[in-house]
Amino acid sequence: MAARIHFVRIIRELAEELGLEAESYSNDWGFRLRKNGKTRYVVGYHFPLNRSSAKELCQDKSLTYDALKSAGVPAVPHIFIPSASAGGSEDPEEWRPLLSEFIRETGFVVVKDNYGTGGNRVFRCDNVEDAVARIRELHKIIYGAAVCPWQEIHEEYRVTMLLHEPQLVIRKERRYKMLPDGTKEYLEWRHNLGLGAVAYRVTDPDILRSVEEIAVRASRTMDISFASVDVVDTDEGLKVLEVNAGVMMEHFAGQDEEDYEIAKSIYRKALIKAFED
User: Fold this and answer.
1) How far is CA 214 from CA 72, 202, 225, in A?
2) CA–CA dist 26, 228 (Å, integer)
3) Fewer CB within 10 Å: C terminus or N terminus of the chain?
4) What is the 3-state secondary structure (H, E, C) of 140-151?
C-alpha cells in the first residue's frame, strides 16, 4: 500500500474548505468528519456513499464477475476456489481440469487473492503444478483464491465513477525499456499503478465513449455509488477486470499539480454528496 501523503493532504484541505470538523484515527487511516450535527467517516479510501453489500460485492472478484456476467456486461472471468475453512476442498484433483483448460486455451492461468488489491498476490502460471502451489499458498492466508484465463491486455483503463457518472478516465502505461529495433519491452506484466505504471488522462472521444459506456453499465449493475472501474482492451474487445469500492488516486494525484487538483475535485464532490443525505 502506497504512503497516503497526497490523499491525507486532500482530505485535510477539503475539510477546511468545506467547513468540516476533522479528526483522524490510526495514523490518518480513518477520518471522522462533522458538520451541522452530521457525522461521516472516510476509512482507507472508502467514502460514506456505498451500501455495505455493494462494497462487499466489489471486494469479491468472483462475485463481481458473476454479477456482471448475469447482467450481460463483458468481464474477465474470475472463478472462485474456496479454502477448506470456507467449505472448499484442498484436493488439487478438483482444480486441475479448470487450470488445465485455461492453460491449454491461453498458455497461462492467473491465480490471485480473491479479495486482494493493488496487484498483490497475483501470479501468472504456465503449468498446473505451479498454479496448484499458488492456490495452496493463498489458502494458508485467505478464504479463497480466484483463477482466470490469461487475457492479452492491449490497454488498461480506470474509470472513476460517482453516482454512475464518469469523472475521470486514465490509461495505465506499464514500465518499459526501448529495444534497439524500436519496440517496447515491458518490465512488469501487471498494469497496477502501485507497481510502477504511469497514469495518463484519456482525451480521445472515441475511447472515452466506449470505455465510459461499459463502466457505467458496471457501476449500475454493482449498485455502487463511488468506485473505480478497471476496463481492459483485449482481443475479444473491452471487458471489466474489476470494480473497486475504495477510490484510490494516490499515484495519480502525485504525478503533478494538475492531476492533484483533478483528484481533489472528485473527492470534493464525494464529500459534498456524503453530507447532503
Assistant:
1) 11, 15, 15
2) 25
3) C
4) CCCCEEEEEECC
**Domain range holding 174?**
52-75+152-247
In the 8-state DSSP scheme, what is residue 126? S
Handedness of CA 155, 159, 164, 167 (dihedral sign): negative
131 and 240 belong to one structural domain = no
Q: What is the pLDDT of residue 1?
A: 44
Q: Are residues 67 and 161 in the same domain?
A: yes
Measured in residues, the chain has a length of 277
List pLDDT tens digits, range 145-163. 999 999 888 999 999 999 9
Amino acid at 99: L
pTM above threshold 0.90: yes
Same domain, 132 and 179: no
Q: Say how far apart CA 32 and CA 25 lie, in whole Å.
A: 8
Q: What is the DSSP letter of 85?
A: G
